[in-house]
Amino acid sequence: MYASDQPLTLHAALYRIAEETVSGSDLPTFYAAMHSIVAQLMFAANFYIALHDAQTNTLSFPYFVDENDPPPPPRPMVKGLTEYVLRTGQSHLVTPAVFRKLQEQGEVELVLTPAVDWLGVPLKVDDHVLGVLVVQSYHDAIHFSETDKELLTFVSRQIAIALTRKRTEAALRESEEKYRSLFEQAPIGIYRTSPRGRILDANPALIHMLGYDSFAQMALRDLETEGFAPPYSRTEFERLLQQTGILRGHEAIWQRRDGSSLIICENAHAIYGADGDVLYYEGTVEDISEQKQAQERLHILQRAIEQSPAAIMLSDTQGNVEYVNPKFTQATGYQPEEVIGRNPRLLKSGETAPAEYARLWQTISSGGEWRGEFHNRKKNGELFWEAASISAITDPTGRITHYLAVKEDITARKTMEAAERQQHALVEMLRHIAALINSTLDLNEVLDRILGNIGRVVPHDAAIIMLIEGDLARIVRSAGYADMGLTDEALQFPFVVSATRNLHTMLTSNRPLVIPDVTAYPGWIVTQAGHQARAFVGAPIRCRRGIIGFLSLESREPGFFNTTHAERLQALADQTGIAIDNAQLYERVRAHAAELEARVAGRTVELQAANAKLQELDHLKSQFVANVSHELRTPLANIKLYLQLLEKGRADKHTQYLATLNREASLLHRLIEELLDLSRFDLGQRSVALTPLDVNLLIQRLLSDRAALIADRGLTLQTRLTPDLPTIPADQAMMTQVLTNLLTNAMNYTPTGGVITLATQLRSNSEHDWLTFSVSDTGPGISPRDRMHIFDRFYRGDASRTAAASGTGLGLAICQEILRRHDGQITLESEPGRGSTFTVWLPLSLSRPHEV
Ligand code: ADP
User: Fold this and answer.
1) Which single residue of 39, 221, 257, 551 has CA 20 to 30 Å from 125?
2) CA nearest 483: which of 463, 467, 465?
């Protein structure tokens, strides 16, 4: 229970109210103080203050002290006594009787515990009723008087004023509290500075932002000289601020306490005094360093994408293009505005299979990455190859927001790969052809194979292989000319290389030649009218010996051949050169071998003949040795016999024995002389000394020696010498020997009474002009059987066996040897019983140098 123990004077009460008003205490304290003051003036054990909220038309009870009831919650206006005071704006002392009367009038209803006395006064400032101050008594012994009512009414005016002020203060404080909190808690920096830059106030965010622990620490710093990183200056800030009095989104670089810098974004404005001078600046500061870095990173990323060497395309989930980088434009020819919002299928060339697109979409829509190649079409229609990597871009929740395609133009690579493949195939082809044409050594076969395979290396309409002979190039193979309007006859003519420009060019440059259009080529030789060739490519066939021919191709299409064709043709021509060279070499080797073979065969025949002759000579030698032994034995045996007879025989026969001995010794002598003669001929030891010989004279000299002897034998000598014969080259001694032998035989084998005739003559036959001399007799003649052998060594015929004089059988053989060495001959004409004629033929001149 609240009781007044120290009654207070009205004056003291007002003083205390005034004191509380300015005390700065809060509202609850203030209410309690008012209660205490009122309690010192009257019974105030039950005391409350009700305040009316005009906006919501509700009553609240910020202060409520009661013996019976708890503080009621705020409530809408009802028909209580409090509302009655509010309504009337008057003070009311309500006794139970008054209450009943008011109840009857319908002014009030019972709301809380009925009081014995209820005293309510309005809290009124000017004519505005803020609320109601109420004291009440539940005790029959305690009643309020009219004086109490007046006193409380009077005090309530002061309280109302004080309350108004307190509430304003409280509201202000609350508001300030609120902003202070904002200032303290704000995540952005807030400051206030003097116009000169001295920091008047800064919130914790700013203090922290700049690396200080407290405002005091920060205030020590002269931000004007230390707080900004160059090139920012305070002057600049002021200039901008003074222009408009306000600064928005101003970015600058500031320095923290530790010297590190931060990028800030600042809003500021000037606060002006009544005289228009700037009092101070207020501003907010935001650290945008991270934002800036992020922005910078973003910027770099953007630049990276824009400058990327790969084409980049960003599309939405439907596949519609949202972004393309400049490389995309460069690669496809499409400007961004031509593709943005559209589907990239406009690039389709139709060469990628629909199944591949389906796989692509399935891969990327399930978050995977698709890699592959497209054969796409540029804006200008040109086809190009690109390698693409396409993948989804997701937001933090994993939802796909975009698709990213990174593409690289690989046309050049593809082209190069294709060219490499082609080159490889060509090399293989050349290798194959080289193997083919080198697998034969037959030149014709080589040429056929080359002609049959050129088309696999260089396409053409007509082809020619020419081989060079001196300054002429002859067409040795050709194909396709019938369709080009060229007859076979036209292909027969050789070209004069030095006068045929294209051939001569290849010959001197040692290089292939392409003529795009022969009709524009000066010096092109038109072999035949109507020849349809327009383009030409040729290559010299080169080998170790130099250029041996040409491979030439023609086409009806101008410009058909290029340098690649020329290189290929040259490669083939080089293989051709090797193959032809090999074939020709083989041909020569074969010819050489054949010649050698022939020579060997010839030599073999010669050797065989020589061998046969050697064998014959060997045989002759053996026979000769046997004959000699036999021939020598006979006279020796006779000589031995007659020597014995001389010793022991009859004396009267000595003369006969001596004559026989003499004869046998002569024979032996002759035999040995003649054997030696023959042996010298055989060994080549007897040289022939040719001197001009007068045969008639030779005959006459010999006859003059022998005439007496002939006559002794009872023979008649006749000569028929042809006068004025020319001399002939002959060995005089040998010719004397020949003549002696023939004359001796005639004398020996012609019986007494016979006639011996010597004749000389000039004769001619188909071979030569001859000088002949002959010895004829009328003796027994020579049988045909003897005729075959009488020139053989040791052969003695019938005549010899019957004649008294024994011969050696060597005379005619020696004659024959002599005549052989004079290029002459000796012939015989004879008939048995009718004599013999031996004729010696000597050439009038020697046809060849005489062999010794
Ligand atoms: P030779 O007279 O020493 O026996 P030749 O060689 O001179 O040896 O003669 C060979 C042979 O030819 C003689 O044995 C003889 O039978 C025969 N003949 C040579 N001359 C005559 C001739 N005038 N008449 C007949 N026969 C001859």
Assistant:
1) 39
2) 463
- pLDDT tens-digit series, residues 700-711: 999 998 999 999
Q: Is the confidence at residue 852, as pLDDT, over 60?
A: no
495 neighbors 473 (Cβ within 8 angstroms): yes
Which of the 8 DSSP states describes residue 780?
A: -
pLDDT for 842 beyond 50? yes
The DSSP H or E segment spanning 292 is helix 289-307
CA of 428 to the centre of ligand 1 (A): 92
Q: Supply the Cα-derived Rg of the chain in whole angstroms.
A: 80
Beta-ladder partners of 76? 58
**Would you call the peptide bond into 231 cis, given omega within 30 degrees of 0 as the criterion?**
yes
Nearest atom of ligand 1 to the alpha carbon of 775:
23
CA 235 to chain centre: 67
Measured from CB, residues less than 6 Å from any atom of ligand 1 are 741, 745-746, 749, 777, 779-780, 782, 790, 796-800, 807-809, 811-812, 836
pLDDT tens-place string over residues 143-158: 999 999 998 998 898 8
Residue 750's contacts (CB-CB under 8 Å, 6 or more residues apart) are: 715, 756, 777, 778, 779, 835
Report pLDDT digits (tens) over 631-643.
788 888 888 888 8
Residue nearest to atom 20 of ligand 1 (CA): 745
Select from 749, 815, 831 the residue to mutate for testing ligand 1; criterion: most ligand atoms less than 8 Å from CB.
Answer: 749
How confident is the model over 165-210, as pLDDT tens digits?
888 888 888 888 888 888 888 889 998 888 877 888 899 999 999 8
Helix 563-648 with 411-438: angle, nearest 10 deg: 20
Helix (H, G, I), strand (E, B) or coil at 599: helix
Cα 229 off chain centre by: 57
Strand runs labelled E in 216-292:
246-255, 261-272, 278-287
Backbone angles phi, psi at 26, to 5 degrees: -85, 175
Residue-level length of the chain? 852
**CA 779, CA 394: separation in Å to the nearest integer?**
151
> Which residue has a Cα nearest atom 8 of ligand 1?
809
Q: Which of 634, 789, 800 to probe ligand 1 with, by most ligand atoms within 8 A of CB? A: 800
Question: Which of 667, 740, 796, 840 has the most ligand 1 atoms within 8 A of CB, as the residue to mutate?
Answer: 796
Q: Which residues does residue 408 pair with via DSSP β-bridges, in sequence order?
A: 387
Q: Note whether 410 and 386 are within 8 A (CB).
A: yes
Six-digit token pair at 109? 């209803």
Nearest atom of ligand 1 to the alpha carbon of 745? 20
Terminal-residue alpha carbon distance, the chain: 192
Q: Token pair for residue 797?
A: 């015929």
pLDDT of residue 816: 95
436 within 8 A of 453, measured Cβ to Cβ: yes
Owner of token pair 């000569």: 719
What is the DSSP secondary structure assignment for residue 851, as one 8-state letter? P
Query: How far apart are alpha carbons 286 and 269 in whole angstroms?
Result: 15
Distance CA 126, CA 128 (A): 6
Weakest mean pLDDT among 33-47, 120-134, 795-809: 795-809
Angle between helices 443-457 and 563-648 (to 10 degrees): 170
Tell me the per-residue pLDDT of 399-413, one tens digit each, with 9 for 90 and over. Answer: 999 999 999 989 888
Give kind and range of the element (H or E) at residue 695. Answer: helix 695-712
pLDDT at residue number 473: 94
Confidence of residue 3 (pLDDT cuts 50, 70, 90): very low
Yes or no: say if 65 and 136 are a contact pair by the CB < 8 Å rule: no
Cα–Cα distance list, 634 to 183, 628, 647, 658 (Å): 177, 10, 20, 17
pLDDT category of residue 514 using cuts at 50, 70 and 90? very high
Ligand 1 atom with the smallest distance to the CA of 796 is 14
